[in-house]
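ugh ok so i messed up the first submission bc i forgot one of the chains. this is the corrected input, ALL of the components this time, i swear. 350 residues overall. if the numbers dont match what u have on ur side tell me asap before i send this to the collaborators (the ones from the other lab, u know who)
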Amino acid sequence: MNATKIRTASTPASASAGYTDPLQALDRIDRAILRQLQTDASISNVALAAKVKLSAPACLRRVERLKESGLIRGVVALIDPKAAGAGMLVIIGVVLDRSTPESFAAFEKAAQKVPGCMECHVVTGEFDYFMAVRTRDSDSFNRLHAEQLLYLPGVRQIRSFMVLKEILSTTRFPL
Amino acid sequence: MNATKIRTASTPASASAGYTDPLQALDRIDRAILRQLQTDASISNVALAAKVKLSAPACLRRVERLKESGLIRGVVALIDPKAAGAGMLVIIGVVLDRSTPESFAAFEKAAQKVPGCMECHVVTGEFDYFMAVRTRDSDSFNRLHAEQLLYLPGVRQIRSFMVLKEILSTTRFPL
DNA sequence: CTTGAAATACTACTACG
DNA sequence: CGTAGTAGTATTTCAAG
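and heres the new structure output, hopefully the right one now
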């Protein structure tokens, strides 16, 4: 863990008993910085400083502290799935044959190599895993399904949910 | 749509008949640029130029073209969910009462306002929607479930799949 | 149509008050 | 936190491949 000190708001404004939301605990300026950088991090530091009404060095120090503290995990370019020829998204529920550690490990190792696999999570309930896979169209998904997904190790059942419309898909945390 | 011309590889190397993957169609340098920016876009342009063995101006022009073409949708800071006090992820399958346009519209409008909702998609199959919601812990999810999810308009059934382990969660497209 | 070298304008970063 | 100064970067211009 990292123990960098972060500026806290004077009004803690916590939700319920004994816990303060780390994001809400930030002061007004740090929140404004995060709001901006989550939306567009290609802004220059001087422009960012002007937006949050701070001098450039002070602003830069805050951004660096937010990175060092681990709150900002990284700054990345996002590729448009459609422009990348992967406009189709499929949610996949997976049930394994056996519930052994080896079985899970083998599946997880293989699942990460599935082309276009963006997410893969162990879940509770009627499925063992949920995956989110990006592909070009139904044809290419059908190929992926027949040639790769069905051959993932230890799979008993696969249920595919084709995404018809992406209502919301964000990396942003509200502030 | 944007019609900016992008550098194409001399070897198209397409998959199967009549289609070329837009990402694979890029030349070696553009792919190297995207690979880097998808991983860490906080790199300076001169450092990026050195990495891809190009002069700074030439490199900058390519990056700008990739943005203008729409392939790069944006550059953003990613917040670490755990550090933000939202270390728990839940996948939620939703079935609506009725399948009318009004019913769908009302649900979609409300779903986007659910605190911590990162994704919401219309899907085929036994559910109408899948949502991904980030929250602090099972307690806070229980509160969210009882106070918000159950009151989303037109909901017949909600099934929650708690994520026990995030195997893979990426915004990166392989190149 | 793209590249790289040089020149200029800004920006990031440091030292200090 | 801000001001002032320095170092380094982004960006334009232009000549050349």
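quick check: The beta strands of chain A are 72-79, 88-96, 117-123, 129-135, 155-169. that seems consistent at least. The CA atoms of residues 123 and 129 of chain A lie 6 Å apart.
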